[in-house]
Amino acid sequence: YRKVDKMKKQIYVIHGYGASPDKHWFPWLKRILGNKGYEIEILKMPTPETPKVNEWIATLKKDIEIINENTYFVAHSLGNITLLRYLSEYENLNEIGGFIMVSAFDRPIKGFEELHPFVETSLDYKKIREKCKLKVVIAVKDDYLVPFEFSKEISEKLDAEFYLIENAGHFLDRDGITELPLIKKILENTLEKNN
Predict the structure, then answer these.
(1) Active-site residue list
(2) Pick from 63, 104, 126, 181: CA 20 to 30 A from residue 87's CA?
(3) Global confidence as pTM
(4) Which residue spans within 18-141 are E strands per DSSP?
């Protein structure tokens, strides 16, 4: 257990379905931002192979100690809808630093019926839009799991900056993605500007 410094920038990374903190580009991001002195934590989501929406949201509630203008989120795939639900349901949400969402979706995805419970509840996009300063959505044209149009839709609902990358699959290590320099660049620019 660590005491969180309210004034220090906190970055929480929320992984997706079947993933873990040591997969894909998460360890790279943690190392590179950690070396710069930022507090970055990759949350370990329960039973990632058989995710339950209530357990995933409960994990965010338990592991995120302080949420304020120094709190930033990076979420991937199923982690995005979990984050959106968490922020939607958060009572008296203060202004927060913001988020970078990678391959986000908020509706059912063909072939992944087991994930439907995550997208069944409507979200308070207005609240999230108004409370977040940094709002970025990143998608890939050739994403074979989450159609990039789904991410684009979310970016419009959140009034977020939208980046479309030509080819990187679903941003997984098996797609050859073990680093994501775009996220590093956006976070560093934001964090250094707001120091």
Answers:
(1) 77, 143, 170
(2) 181
(3) 0.95
(4) 39-43, 71-76, 96-102, 132-140
